[in-house]
Amino acid sequence: MSITSSNPFDLSGKVALITGSTMGIGEGTARVLAQAGAHVVISSRKPDDCERVAQALRDEGLSAEGRVCHIGRMEDIASMTEHLRERHGGLDILVNNAVLSPWRTIDDTDLALFTKTVEVDLRGYWYLSLEATKLMKPRGGGSIVNIASIAAWHPDKMLGLYSTLKTALIGMSRAFALEYGEFGIRVNTLLPGVIQTKLSEVYDAPTQARFIAKTPVRRLGQPQDIGYAVLYLSAASGAFVTGASLPVDGGITISIF
């Protein structure tokens, strides 16, 4: 079906920033939003990677640009905000996806690693979202989607800090949804299950096979599965949804927990 003005999934004319979008969930989400008509800003820490993905999307006939932003650095958040204001006059969609995922026991999580992870996985989300609200208000609203994880509900022993911060992210999303709803800004959280990305590679083949066997739909997720959920929440289709926490996990949380 072609994208038309009557299509509730149409993002034509919208500007979307997706952090951590040079691979995996972020890249898959950027492609889905661009296919729905949005101009997507590909963002990560490395300029070459940002431009590579943006060019690949442009080669597909989609609208995209690359822009470096390390969300653990406040100066990068400020620079991105100014760029969006000057070049695009604001922002319609923010997908907070960039993440640090230290594979450590709690005993092995030292203060330096704890601080660095908090700076990216919580502080970065908070302050980039805050700046996004300032860019969205003059446009009459917008959508912020925070990518958490089913680990927020069911932590993994080797992902204790990651799981903790993903749980905090749910609370943050609900707080932002409450405070900014009157400005037409909706804020929701997605909780991906096991998705075929670099992060899932920490699980060996037998472990992945066990995940598949316990997942009702009998497969691992693909990055575009998350992208389609982001599209639903970011377009007119999700206009009455805010403060929600949506698992996109093939049903694994109802199967093994």
Topology:
Layout: E1 15-19, H1 24-35, E2 39-43, H2 47-59, E3 64-66, H3 74-88, E4 93-96, H4 111-136, E5 142-147, H5 160-180, E6 185-192, H6 205-214, H7 223-234, E7 245-248, H8 252-255
Parallel strand pairs: 1-2, 1-4, 2-3, 4-5, 5-6, 6-7
Helix pairs in contact: 1-7, 3-4, 4-5
Strand order of the largest sheet: 3-2-1-4-5-6-7
CATH architecture: 3-Layer(aba) Sandwich
Number of helices: 8
Residue runs with pLDDT of under 50 for 5 or more positions? none
Please give the radius of gyration in angstroms: 17 Å
Largest sheet: 7 strands, parallel
Total E-strand runs: 7
CATH superfamily: NAD(P)-binding Rossmann-like Domain
Helix fraction, binned, reads: 40-55%
CATH topology: Rossmann fold
Q: CATH top level? A: Alpha Beta
User: Which structural class should the secondary elements be placed in?
Assistant: alpha/beta
What labels describe this entry?
7 strands; 257 residues; single chain; seven-stranded parallel sheet; 14% strand
Task: Explain how this protein is built.
The chain is α/β, with parallel strands linked by helices. It has one domain: Rossmann fold (3-Layer(aba) Sandwich). It is 44% helix and 14% strand. The relative contact order is 0.15. The N and C termini lie far apart (38 Å).
